[in-house]
Amino acid sequence: MSSQIVDRARSRSAAERLGDALTGVNAVAYCLVLPAILLRLAFTLVPALQTFWLSFTDKSLMAPGRFIGLANYAAMLSDKTLIGSFGFTLFYTVTSVALETALGLAIAMLLMRQLRARWISNFIMLLPWVMAPLLAATVWKIMFYEDGGILNQILRDLGVISSPIRWLSSANTARGSVVLVTVWKNVSWVALIFMAALAALPKDVYEAAEVDGANAWQRFRAITVPMLRPTIFLVLMFRGMGEVQTFEQIGGLTRGGPGTATQNLAYYAYQRFFQELRYGYGSAINVLLLLLTALIGGFFAWRMYKASSR
Amino acid sequence: MAARTLPLLHPQRILLMALLVLVLLFLAFPVYFMLVTSLKSSGEAYRLPATLWPHNPTLQAYPFVIKAWSYWRTLGNTVLVAGLAAFGATMLGGIAAYGFSRMAFTGKSLLYATVVGSMAIPAMVTLGPIFLAYKDLRLLDTHLGLILVFMAEGIPVAFLTLFSYFKAIPKELDEAAAIDGGSLLDIFFRIIVPIALPGVAVTFLLLFIAGWNEFLFAFTLTITPSTRLLTVRLFEIPIRADANTIPYDLIAAGGMLILLPLVPILLRVQKQLVEGILAGAVKE
């Protein structure tokens, strides 16, 4: 591409640019970019629109489906299990993202100081990252075995507990256990992102602060956190969108139990759609999941944009 | 930072080292425990309290799982689907990223926002309609169906990662080639891809790993054992005919059989992998 052509395309009027849309520079560019974008949209936007449409119908395996307006949404309001899974989704997302971000930053700062044998710590960090979420859940499930399982055994030998922890069989601990597995799985990615961001921070600011007598905590609060703001929002955005739609950890660890204690939106929607074969109702739950995900992504993308354009 | 200059036995340094060891232990222990459990005899795997290392290490769990899962066939399926999807997404995403990094065109920022914005659509939301459409299109239970879904899943990652690599290549290079009369795709494959080869390779690997680990689509869109992928097998616990306890050794061996093929990648191209992860995430 010669730059004159590009400049000319820029300086033309809106009407002329519209005319260009199907010819010349644009035609070539569209040939390059559209195959990827169209494939992407065919598997995301199109099915998402279909989900919207299905959510206004009573389609199921048995019924071809007719338009029923907002009836599915009205049914959601009185579905106690759904409200419970919405609540757990929020709890789970907020807790695991908060822990991942805080721990990830701490681990990054810790690892920045370690200079020798980097490849070992990098290898260990990448192990949870490279494992399938379902594999992570499977491994932890073996360790969570309650009577004489390895975690309870170690904690008892260390004198931390006297009676076994009900990792997956008591409602509140099960909620925590699911969060624990997710944090284990994803904290490495967060730490890697923060390590790169920390390495890019200007050293002279820290040196100046040290000369001025700021202690480590003050330097962290006054320099590190403000300068990391765009990265923090990036992490919150990606992890928030990831955790809110968690499926594998729930399926692999608790299947939503005990009772419905760890039932989340994605798992609940999956059961309605694929086990009860209620396509309409399952789709209405998915619309809620979509709105929640887009809200998280949009909010943090906006905060990230503001923080980095300052 | 200050800690680097501290003497070896300074209390603060010892504390930090202890914390570091604790963190690495937390991250590594589950994998260690999976490994040792897979090496236990079936009797020891059931024994409670659980043991921290195998007293009579044995590989007997592995052949059992390999047979019960039709492991080699499943492995072949996984390599085929994850590999072709990663290749396709790297190509399509790369060509698109090249267009974005080199050309000005109408609706450019809108299309960019479309790709990035599509990442906010959860897989679960698309799964139902894709399943129903696949049923009509006879793509259910086919590898082609999975490859198409995995490709679409991988395109934003490929696009963003390669966009950040391509932007770093000076435009003068391809402008010189354009004057010499090369077509755009010609320039892309003969000049850009070779220069950005580390980035292209790492993008392929990242997508390959993602496909290897994908479960939701692979589970829902396949039915017969002969089309299934490795992670889906993990959901089917192999059972011994004569035992009614949970076969921990078999589950752990299955887990190892899924993890092990990826370990060489972690060891050989670790640095590049980390760079690739960062390239895809760091904002423009």
From TrEMBL, chain A:
Transmembrane segments annotated in the record for this chain: 21-43, 86-111, 123-143, 178-201, 279-302
Compartments where located: Cell membrane
A Pfam family that the UniProt record links to this protein: BPD_transp_1
Membrane topology: Multi-pass membrane protein
Start and end residues of each ABC transmembrane type-1 domain: 86-300
Gene3D superfamilies reported for this sequence: MetI-like (1.10.3720.10)
Entry keywords, A to Z: Cell membrane, Membrane, Sugar transport, Transmembrane, Transmembrane helix, Transport
Organism: Kaistia soli DSM 19436
GO CC annotation terms, alphabetical: plasma membrane
Name of the protein described by the UniProt record: Multiple sugar transport system permease protein
Family membership: Belongs to the binding-protein-dependent transport system permease family.
GO biological process, one term: transmembrane transport
The keyword Membrane is annotated on this UniProt entry: yes
From TrEMBL, chain B:
Protein family membership: Belongs to the binding-protein-dependent transport system permease family. MalFG subfamily.
Transmembrane segments: 14-35, 79-98, 110-132, 144-166, 187-209, 247-267
UniProt-listed GO biological process terms: transmembrane transport
Chief subcellular location: membrane
SUPFAM superfamilies: MetI-like
Domain ABC transmembrane type-1: 75-269
Bilayer topology annotation: Multi-pass membrane protein
Cellular localization per UniProt: Cell membrane
Full protein name: Maltose/maltodextrin transport system permease protein MalG
Role noted for this protein: Part of the ABC transporter complex MalEFGK involved in maltose/maltodextrin import. Probably responsible for the translocation of the substrate across the membrane.
Organism of origin: Kaistia soli DSM 19436
GO cellular component terms listed in the entry, alphabetical order: plasma membrane
Keywords linked to the UniProt accession: Cell membrane, Membrane, Sugar transport, Transmembrane, Transmembrane helix, Transport
Stored InterPro entries: BP-dep_ABC_trans_perm (IPR050901), MetI-like (IPR000515), MetI-like_sf (IPR035906)
